[in-house]
Design brief:
4-stranded mixed beta sheet; alpha+beta; 209 residues; 5-stranded mixed beta sheet
């Protein structure tokens, strides 16, 4: 049996459904490469090694990078829009503003449309803020701490940075404190509880009680 066939059998899928495809780079259209490079470096994004004529930068904690350069895309400069997932939208916005980036105010989505300020219940996917690069390409930041079911395989959960991991541990600690209040006793098995809670946040599974 070939490795490809074995992979398909192990995943329970066959054909194209069993083929791994990792999104690693998106190309954004810019009119001035040096200006765009300076802007994205100001965001704290890592400058990657690339062939001549290509600029590639990667956001902290991200597995996907952006590229730009002469002739990479026929799209008009400023026509791109993409999402940036953050675990704390207020802290992220403050950091960007401190770095000299113009960021719109935080808002949340309601049935009646956008409303200024954080979502009162701090639900995942609801609180947002936007900023644009010098060409007008739009980045929409979205606060996500608890994924919808099926978005991430529970066996493949991971954290892209120490910052994200620390934030997840703080949320787990707060939830575990509520757990101990409900049970009325100290939980000596807290490491396993933390782990189950943190995996449930990423995979959308039911959290421990």
């Amino acid at each position: 049996m070939s490795p490809k066939s074995a992979q398909g059998d192990a995943s329970g899928m066959s054909g194209v459904e069993g083929v791994d495809m990792k999104l690693e780079v998106i190309v954004i259209p810019v009119s001035d490469v040096d200006r765009a490079k300076a802007f994205y470096l100001r965001l704290g994004w890592r400058l990657d090694q690339t062939p001549p004529g290509i600029v590639q930068l990667t956001p902290h904690g991200s597995g996907c990078s952006v590229q730009f350069g002469p002739g990479l895309t026929p799209a008009a400069p400023g026509s791109a829009m993409a999402y940036l997932v953050v675990s704390d939208i207020e802290a992220t916005r403050n950091a960007l503003v401190s770095a000299g980036v113009e960021v719109g105010g935080v808002f949340h989505v309601s049935p009646a449309g956008p409303v200024d300020g954080l979502d009162p219940e701090r639900r995942s996917y609801v609180s947002r803020a936007t900023f644009r690069d010098p060409d007008g390409n739009t980045w929409l930041m979205q606060e996500i701490t608890n994924r919808l079911p099926g978005r991430i395989d529970s066996g493949l959960t991971s954290y892209g940075s120490a910052t994200d991991l620390a934030s997840a541990m703080r949320r787990a600690a707060a939830a575990h404190g509520e757990h101990e209040e409900r049970t009325g006793q100290r939980d000596e098995n807290w490491p396993d509880w933390y782990a189950a809670y943190m995996v449930s946040e990423q995979s959308g599974a039911t959290p421990p009680e």
